[in-house]
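Researcher: Go.
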Amino acid sequence: MERARAPGTQGDPERLPGRRELLAGAAAAAGLLLLGCRGETVDVRDQAAIAAGGSRGYAGPALDLAFWTGFTGGDRGPMERLIARFNREHDNITVRMSVARWGDFYQKLPAAVDSGHGPDVAVLHADQLATAAAHRTILPLDDVTDALGLGAGDFSRTLWDAGVFRGRRYGIPLDVHPLGLYYNRTVLADAGIGDEALPRSRRDTMAVLEQLKGRGVQGSWVSPALFTGGLMFQSLLWQFGGELFSEDGARATFDSEAGVEALSFMLELIQRGYSPRNVGQDADSIAFTNNRNAFIWNGIWMLNIYGSIPGLRWGVLPVPTIGAERAVWANSHNLVLPRQPASGQGRLKASVVFVDWLSRHSLEWARAGMVPARREARESAAFRRMTEQAIFAEQIPVVRFPPAIAGIDAVRASTLDLAVNEAVLLRAAPREALGRAAREADALLADNLRKFGRTL
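Model: Structure:
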């Protein structure tokens, strides 16, 4: 899950600069796609029905399935072990995983699918499903999940709903990866602060940071980058009752009073001296590992990274509730079926066998530092023994995902992320930065509506 990477390389590799427009005219209206150089016409509804047949198992000739992911880091090994086990258990299906950095992956996948050379199965983040669905890069999975008997009760309502775009399902959640509050035990102990003072609320947070400041420690560094400042802002926005965008994808709403309040809180940490100014990329995490920073809002993807550093004493909690309600940013890896050329439709049955198997074995995937999406895995005794993952899992009732709006990731990256950066670097007041970004976002959203149509 290299969406956020190790200190020194963190960032947002999921920029999507090359958005392709939807096919137009009668073919698009009928749900038909002309597939690049092969010139084959495929009805995505027929493909979904064919894929549903995979729930009955695959008894055809031996074949290889191409599985594309962005698991280039510490999550690659656990997935490779899962695939090896699947291959041992299935004589007639061999899965071969290809990996690429997420930024490259999201540019490569649609081009490969359109040329008729895409993978059989892939992994997409929940916030990328809408764009991929609008481009018809991936298949609707309603028939598949019905055949597999899957529903919200097998996951959680929030996780399940995150896979829906315009009333149709496009993803089956494999995991959920939210932010958490990491704390450095050495820094706190040196300041005479025990576990009873660990922050759960705004009052707790300010009290412990003031105590740390009295001992000469700037205890909560605020990053101007998406990882982790931008994700912290989104969590705070939801905690203060705000939303990123309108439900129909027509308007930015992050410049609301809730947004101003959220960004103002981040600035308050700097202005009160709890964070240095001009925190560089990854400097908050590097300071944490060097026992110079007490707290960091960071993702579950850091569990294995921090756990591998000799001598680093740390723990994790749910993010504190700074606003009026509990909420935390999260994302989710989803299993998807890319559109296939007519000649490859028979492979869909085998693909569903693999997707179903992988979903049912998500407990083993948790060892990559994830919270498994399947409820039965999260409620197992084996998962509860994964102490830190289980703490992250406590937040599932309050996790929030970016809205299912096609092209929204690119809009956010070129507007909101820049506004947070500008404000945290004290170059603009929160209201000014967010207002300007919202106006720019509205123009981009209008362009999205012309390309993709309304979300609702």
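Model: Confidence is low (pLDDT under 50) at residues 1-41.
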